[in-house]
Design goal:
Chain lengths: 259, 240
């Protein structure tokens, strides 16, 4: 008992596994911040301004899973798959084999909209339900255990009321965790947004919120990451600095000094 | 030079026929024979003739021309068929996906499709712009375009086509079903027409009495007239 307490006191480089079973993100530093990983079946809002590394982080989350044998599903609204792959950091561990063998599946959400004949600027309640069940079906079919939606903000543009957006998020979160998928839902923020999400409802419904941002220091723009909330685990709430490398994302504590 | 209507009595009323470079609408209730008039107007004159049909097949148009013994020297463009292939089939597909759900394959297949969205109004306008003037073009009927794209878009296309017809000393004839659209829509279309022919059908005892009303001839208000007509195997018969 006393040794556990001591361990809690001093910062440890060893990954602590506390609470529920974890989905190991494979991102260096993030798993230890999260006390071992994202609690399984959690729906996590990954939120931040543009250029903060949300897409890179979520792709890496899927890649690590795929390599470890957990299928991943990437639903993109903003970018077609080819462009996404072309712009992706040339990770040392990425091979097209992962896509060919079905470990990774990319879905262009606009194709879902077209298949269902959604009205571009106003989805009905029924459309929202259809979208949720389609994402559920695709998750089931691909046996995905990790899922990324890039981004919920783009989906929400088509949803014209808070109530429908709420339905969409609650439905998604229920469906996905019911299927045993751990999900990252990307939310795009602008500098003017005062909360963690564009519409304010996303953060309340998510099981976790990871905030990514920019920080200017000595004329340098640093990418930062902060776990604001994560149900099912104890985690650090400190701000970390993100480094995007071809070996993957590195997370290091933000030093308080001015160096 | 007026452009003949193919009906002697009507030519007489109109001062020899339609004025060159004008647009005419035939407006009548269902069953009044507006399509028959449209076909008559399509198959006379020396201009290159085109017949856009939205609710009949190409064969239907030709067989009815033969029935009346009229020339079949017109190019029939079947919009209804194209509509069926692109829009209706797609709707059917949407229903299927909505009912049965989506598979990864369905989504990926869609992403690979390169079909551009097809707009029939754009298609119609584009086709007409490609015609060698002078032409005589019939659109039977405008209902389809208003239903599909709304009156504003149709009006804007009609304005363009009217200017084009006028410039090329050609002729454009559209049909419109009476009583389908509200008065505002009807009036805005009427206002755009150079010639307006309305068809009316009344029951008198055990018979129908059909009237053709030339209700507008631009710049020639004195040419307005009401005439009786009948449609039979000999074609159209007009009586003053």
């Amino acid at each position: 008992m006393s040794s556990a307490k001591e361990e809690h006191k001093r910062p440890s480089t060893r990954i602590l596994s506390i609470g529920r079973e974890k989905c190991i993100t494979g991102i260096e530093g993030l798993d230890s911040v999260l006390g071992g990983g994202i609690p399984r079946n959690n729906t996590v809002l990954l939120t931040g301004n543009c250029g903060t590394g949300k897409t890179s982080l979520s792709l890496e989350f899927l890649l690590h899973g795929a390599i470890e044998g957990e299928n991943g599903l990437y639903l993109s609204v903003t970018e077609p798959f080819e462009k996404l792959i072309a712009n992706m950091i040339p990770y040392d561990f990425f091979t097209k084999e992962l896509i060919k063998t079905g470990k990774l599946t990319f879905i262009d959400m606009s194709a879902i909209y077209e298949r269902f004949g959604f009205n571009r600027d106003r989805m009905s309640i029924e459309d929202v339900d259809l979208l949720v069940s389609a994402i559920g079906d695709l998750t089931r079919e691909t046996k995905a255990r990790r899922l990324v939606i890039d981004s919920i903000t783009s989906v929400a543009y088509q949803v014209d009321s808070q109530e429908k957006l709420r339905n969409l998020l609650i439905g998604l979160s229920k469906a996905l965790s019911g299927l045993g998928a751990t999900s990252l839902i990307i939310s795009e923020l602008t500098a003017a947004d005062a909360s963690y999400s564009k519409y304010g409802v996303e953060e309340a419904i998510a099981d976790g919120v990871i905030l990514m941002g920019n920080l200017e220091r000595n004329g340098d723009m640093l990418r930062t990451l902060q776990v604001i909330k994560m149900r099912g685990t104890s985690h650090s709430r400190a701000k970390y600095v993100l480094d995007l490398t071809t070996a993957g994302i590195l997370l290091v504590p933000l030093l308080k000094g001015g160096s | 030079m007026p452009l003949t209507t193919g009906i002697k009595e009507l030519d007489g009323v109109l001062g020899g026929g339609f004025v060159e470079g004008t647009v005419c609408a035939i407006v009548g209730p269902p069953g009044s024979g507006s399509g028959v008039f449209a076909r008559r107007f399509a198959t006379v004159g020396d201009e290159e003739s085109y017949y856009f049909t939205t609710n009949e097949g190409t064969d239907d148009v030709y067989s009815s021309l033969k029935r009346f013994g009229w020339s079949t020297d017109t190019t029939v463009v079947d919009i209804g068929d194209k509509y069926h292939d692109t829009v209706l089939m797609r709707r059917l597909e949407i229903t299927k996906y909505r009912q049965e759900g989506l598979k990864v394959k369905d989504v990926h297949e869609y992403a690979e499709m390169t079909d551009r969205p097809f707009n029939f109004l754009t298609y119609l306008t584009h086709e007409i712009f490609g015609m060698k003037p002078p032409f005589r073009v019939i659109v039977d009927s405008l209902d389809f375009f208003i239903d599909t794209y709304g009156v504003e878009e149709v009006l804007s296309s009609l304005r363009t086509l009217r200017a084009y017809t006028n410039k090329n000393k050609s002729l454009m004839i559209v049909t419109l079903t009476k009583g389908v659209f509200d008065a505002k829509v009807q009036n805005s279309i009427d206002a755009l027409m150079d010639t307006l022919i309305e068809l009316e059908r009344e029951r008198v005892g055990k018979k129908f009495e059909s009237n053709l009303i030339v209700s507008k001839v631009k710049n020639f208000p004195e040419r307005s007239r009401i005439m009786q007509y009948s449609v039979g195997d000999n074609g159209i018969v007009l009586m003053d």
